[in-house]
Amino acid sequence: MAGSWIFYTTFPKIPLINPEFKNIAQFAPLLGFFIGTIQSIIFIFLKTSSWSIYASALICLASGYLITGGLHLDGLMDTFDGIFAGKKKRLKAMKDSNVGSFGVQSLVFITLIQIGCILKIQNQIIIVLPICLFWGRFSNLFFIEKFKYLSYKKKSISHKKFWNGFKKESLISIIFLCIFIAYQLFSITSQAILIKFLILILIGIFLSYSIPNILGNIIGGFNGDACGASIVLVETAMLFMYAILL
Known about the structure:
Blueprint: H1 28-47, H2 53-68, H3 71-85, H4 90-95, H5 101-121, H6 125-146, H7 166-187, H8 191-219, H9 224-245
Helix pairs in contact: 1-2, 1-6, 2-5, 3-5, 3-9, 5-9, 6-7, 6-8, 6-9, 8-9
C-alpha cells in the first residue's frame, strides 16, 4: 500500500499510477473525504432499503474499517496504551504488538460514541461524515509540521523526512475545501443546516489543530500510531459535536 495513490487503504493499486511516499501525505485529507462519502452512501442506501437504522450504522462503520484495514484504530489503541504506560515505557508500550486494557477501552468508547452520533445525525451524514474524515486526516499535517518524529526503528521512513512545509503540503486540501464550501453555500437550501455546516467547518479547524497538539505534547513528538490516534479522535470529536448541534 505504501506506493499506491490510495495510501493507507485496502483498495487495490491503480494501474500506471505510482506516486512516491514523499508526496502522499498531502492527499490524505482528500482520501478521507472520499472514504466518508462511500460510508455515507452505504448508510443511506441500507436505511432506505428496509434495513434498520442500527444495522445501517454498524455496517457504515464496518465499511470504514474494511477500507482502511483498521490501521488508524490500531494506532489509537497503541497510543492510549503508551500514554497510560508512563513516560519511560511509552514507546515500548506503543511498539508492543499486544493490546493493553487502555487500548481496548479506547476502541470500545470511540466505537460506541461514533455509533450514537450516526444514529443521531442520520440523513445529514452525507454532508457531515466526509468533512469529519477530511479534518481527521488534515490533523496529521499539523502534527507533522509541528513535532519531531519518534521512531521505533533507526531506519524507519517518515513523512517528516520529505516534508515541504505546511503551506505546500496543505494547499491541495485547502483548495478542495474552498470549492466544497462554495458548492454547499449554493446547494443547501435550509438556512439552519447551512449554519450548522459552517460551524462544522470551524469546529474541524479547531479540533484538527488542537488534538494533535495535545497528543504531541503528551508523547513528545509524533509517529504512525499517534497520527492514527489523531485521525480517529478528531473524527469522533467532530461527529459528537455536530450531533450535539442537532
